[in-house]
């Protein structure tokens, strides 16, 4: 039953995303889309370069947050990031791709790897909130945009910032994995599944991942700050991808106008995470903007 539910969610998400793309193309016109793509030509390589640079830089914090002995090679760090991004683009939610990065380190280092992944994602989300706030400020300087963009963006930014802070506080006290374990047991009981076989999220006694997570969060603040700054830099490089896309299409947007477009997928990450890669959802909302 659980597998069937997952399949329904997955196909519903894909259907929603592809349906929105079809609606958008119908609204704009297939010939218009085809002509614009034909006009771009090899200049599209600038978008690929910006995306590759942003993704590669975004791979670094995971390594920064791990103990020296557990750190994979730089090649493994970057490869695992691209692999995780690819998986996240085709599956709803984002956990599967991130967990897959553990395959690039030795199994005995998995507790440290899981702890680093959790903190890495919390910092990634916080960096996105900073960019979203910048997008809201930029939107205030564009009179033609409805004020709905401003207050809704500010509210979402507050939620995005609050979530990681709460989870970090729980993790710093060594209780995050334990609480996840209780949630898994609750879902299994209410879903009619036998808890006889323990899950990876149902540790007995003290979970080494909780210890590793507490060590990261209570460790060097300079390391945490460097990881956060790296994620902000990665987000800015990914913003350059959108700027490059607008330029190759002949749209000479200002940095402020570009930030408004950049803020859209960040804001949608709160409500659109079940749609693989936000396909269709992101493009439709950006078209409205």
Task: Write a brief caption for the model.
The protein has 289 residues and is mainly α. Helix content is 74%, strand content 0%.
Main features:
289 residues, mainly alpha, 13 helices, 74% helix
Explained architecture:
The protein is mainly α. The protein has helices spanning 2-28, 30-40, 45-58, 60-64, 74-90, 95-99, 110-140, 148-172, 176-190, 208-217, 221-248, 255-271, 281-288.
Largest sheet: none
SS-derived structural category: mainly alpha
Which spans of ≥5 residues are poorly predicted at pLDDT below 50?
Answer: 192-204
Distance between the termini: 40 Å
How many beta-strand segments?
A: 0
SSE blueprint:
Elements: H1 2-28, H2 30-40, H3 45-58, H4 60-64, H5 74-90, H6 95-99, H7 110-140, H8 148-172, H9 176-190, H10 208-217, H11 221-248, H12 255-271, H13 281-288
Helix pairs in contact: 1-13, 3-5, 3-11, 7-8, 7-10, 7-11, 7-12, 11-12, 12-13
């Amino acid at each position: 039953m659980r597998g069937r539910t997952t399949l329904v969610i997955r196909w519903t998400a894909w259907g929603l995303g592809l349906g929105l793309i079809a609606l958008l193309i119908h609204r704009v016109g297939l010939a218009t889309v085809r002509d614009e793509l034909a006009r771009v030509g090899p200049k599209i390589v600038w978008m690929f370069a910006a995306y590759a640079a942003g993704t590669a830089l975004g791979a670094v914090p995971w390594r920064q947050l791990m103990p020296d002995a557990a750190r994979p090679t730089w090649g493994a760090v970057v490869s695992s990031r691209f692999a995780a991004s690819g998986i996240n683009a085709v599956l709803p939610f984002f956990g599967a791709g991130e967990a897959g990065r553990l395959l690039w380190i030795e199994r005995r280092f998995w507790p440290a790897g899981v702890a680093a992944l959790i903190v890495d994602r919390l910092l990634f989300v916080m960096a996105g909130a900073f960019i979203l706030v910048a997008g809201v400020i930029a939107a205030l300087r564009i009179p033609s945009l409805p004020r709905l963009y401003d207050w809704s963006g500010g509210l979402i930014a507050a939620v995005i910032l609050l979530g990681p802070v709460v989870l970090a506080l729980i993790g710093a006290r060594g209780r995050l994995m334990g609480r996840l374990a209780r949630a898994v047991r609750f879902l299994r009981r209410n879903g009619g599944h036998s808890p006889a076989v323990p899950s990876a999220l149902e540790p007995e006694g003290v979970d080494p991942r909780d210890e590793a997570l507490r060590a990261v969060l209570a460790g060097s603040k300079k390391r945490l700050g460097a990881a956060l700054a790296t994620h902000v830099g990665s987000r800015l490089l990914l913003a350059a991808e959108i700027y490059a896309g607008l330029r190759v299409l002949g749209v000479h947007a200002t940095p402020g106008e570009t930030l408004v477009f950049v803020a859209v997928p960040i804001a949608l990450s709160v409500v659109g995470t079940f749609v693989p890669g936000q396909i269709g959802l992101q493009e439709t909302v950006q078209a409205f903007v």
